[in-house]
């Protein structure tokens, strides 16, 4: 298993003394390595086990906070623990959204589908509260950039744009992971929280958490997180270190 940086190990040890404790994480790029096909994004080896160990500790709540819809996250991860599920970048709590926003989302998907179909490798994903345009598998990189620019140009101002890794999402709600983390913290009345994320949408969560919490950026790029690890393989070690400290 990877070594965890010394400063982060110390922060995790301090976190382990606090209860109730929220252990929250993004999924893609953190608990699962990024892959070309979103439906093939399996958890890293050892992740399911360490999440289960953490959730079994007295006073610890594990939350999965993803840009995916909750149903999609549950299906792709295969996780079945007693977790809190937050999907659609904070728009869905524990279950699917009601149908109120679906008509807007479907109209948007219908409008974007012909445009996305003109770029080989591009993929349109219709999600509970958004439509995502994926370009990871577009070999012609200038065409990928041009497509995302055109999608931006077509978006009306009431939509929330969520750029991510090789993806641009247009959301029909303004929820974000920061508001989701604040809501979880309040509902659970936690003393402290850990949050791990890798993408731009995770920055909202990093910024929302108070200084005593532990925020961990996975991978490169500017961040508001206080700690950093290199990749999803290192995340297993971080969670294992916390589980060890809690034991
Ligand atoms: O908030 P997350 O749990 O990180 O979800 C963010 C998006 O993840 C998925 O897309 C990303 O992962 C794919 C699989 O590794 C990859 O192909 C894609 O390029 C990445 O952007 C998911 O498909 C999106 O719906 C999520 O919003």
UniProtKB/TrEMBL annotation:
Pfam families hit by this protein: Trehalose_PPase
GO biological process, one term: trehalose biosynthetic process
EC assignment: 3.1.3.12
UniProt enzyme class: hydrolase
Domain of life, source organism: Bacteria
Catalysed transformations (reactions): alpha,alpha-trehalose 6-phosphate + H2O = alpha,alpha-trehalose + phosphate
InterPro entries according to UniProt: HAD-like_sf, HAD_sf, OTSB-like, Trehalose_PPase
SUPFAM superfamilies per the UniProt record, alphabetical: HAD-like
MF (Gene Ontology): metal ion binding; trehalose-phosphatase activity
Coiled-coil regions listed: none
Pathway participation: Glycan biosynthesis; trehalose biosynthesis
Keywords recorded for this protein, A-Z: Hydrolase, Magnesium, Metal-binding
Cofactor field: Mg(2+)
Gene3D superfamilies: HAD superfamily/HAD-like, Trehalose-6-phosphate phosphatase related protein, domain 2
Family classification: Belongs to the trehalose phosphatase family.
NCBIfam families per the UniProt record, alphabetical: T6PP (TIGR00685)
Function: Removes the phosphate from trehalose 6-phosphate to produce free trehalose.
Protein's recorded name: Trehalose 6-phosphate phosphatase
Organism of origin: Geodermatophilus ruber
């Amino acid at each position: 298993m990877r070594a965890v940086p010394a400063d982060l190990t110390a922060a995790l040890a301090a976190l382990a003394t606090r209860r109730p404790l929220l252990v929250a994480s993004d999924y893609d790029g953190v608990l699962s390595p990024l892959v070309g096909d979103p439906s093939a994004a399996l958890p890293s080896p050892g992740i399911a086990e360490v999440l289960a160990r953490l959730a079994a500790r007295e006073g610890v709540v594990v939350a999965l906070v993803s840009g995916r819809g909750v149903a999609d996250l549950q299906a792709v991860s295969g996780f079945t623990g007693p977790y809190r599920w937050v999907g659609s970048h904070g728009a869905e709590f524990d279950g699917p959204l009601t149908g109120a926003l679906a008509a807007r989302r479907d109209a948007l998907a219908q409008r974007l589908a012909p445009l996305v179909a003109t770029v080989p490798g591009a993929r349109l994903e219709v999600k509970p509260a958004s439509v995502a345009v994926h370009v990871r598998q577009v070999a012609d990189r200038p065409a990928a950039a041009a497509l995302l620019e055109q999608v931006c140009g077509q978006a009306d101002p009431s939509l929330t744009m969520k750029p991510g890794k090789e993806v641009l999402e247009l959301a029909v709600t303004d929820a974000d992971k920061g508001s989701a983390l604040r809501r979880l913290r309040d509902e659970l009345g936690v003393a402290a929280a850990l949050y791990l994320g890798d993408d731009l949408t995770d920055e909202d969560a990093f910024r929302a958490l108070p200084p005593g919490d532990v925020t961990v950026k996975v991978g490169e790029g500017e961040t508001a997180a206080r700690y950093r690890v290199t990749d999803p393989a290192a995340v297993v070690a971080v969670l294992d270190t916390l589980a060890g400290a809690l034991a």
